[in-house]
Amino acid sequence: LLCEQLKPQRRVVHTGDTIYQAGERFGNLYILNSGFFKIVNLSADGREQVVGLKFRGDWLGFDGISSGRYSCDAVAMDTGEIWVVSYEALLAACATQPALLQVLHAAMSREIAHDRDSLMSVCTLPADARVADFLRYWAETLAERGMRTDEITLRMTRAEIGNYLGMT
User: Fold this and answer.
1) Alpha-carbon distance 71 to 98, whole Å?
2) What is the pTM of this model?
3) Phi-psi region for residue 46, left (φ > 0), alpha (ψ -120 to 50) or beta?
4) What string of H, E and C letters represents the secondary structure of 66-101?
5) Which CATH superfamily is domain 2-164 in?
6) What is the pLDDT of residues 152-164, one digit of tens each?
7) Domain chopping of the chain, boundaries
């Protein structure tokens, strides 16, 4: 439905490629067709904080809607493909296609729910339980997307995992 209505621009990305940067003018949403991505905030003193991990099927860029500028960086952790969707075109298509609006709302809702779960984990679990929860989340996310779970490759360094889990 999404591809038929919007004809997204497909873009191949490689490890380290930035999809968008904090402060950049908002105009597009990005749907991850393959690969793994991290969402990074930069603190006022220049420290990098990994605040999100994204997998195939996830959307990037919702953070730019309210202010008209992206609030963080989205960075590829391996080779992948993103679908670039103009936000204006998406809104116009949603006006005539209620099913498309439901897809958009579902993606936003999944992100809100995951962000809440991540915050609860960081705020309430001891360090070893946070690591276990992170590994469970990674495996469940791969399984939901039909990917292998018998052999998991983490696309992050130990430092990035610790940073994401609030253990640095």
Assistant:
1) 28
2) 0.79
3) left
4) CCCECCCEEEECCCEEEEEEEHHHHHHHHHHCHHHH
5) Jelly Rolls (2.60.120.10)
6) 777 777 888 887 8
7) 2-164
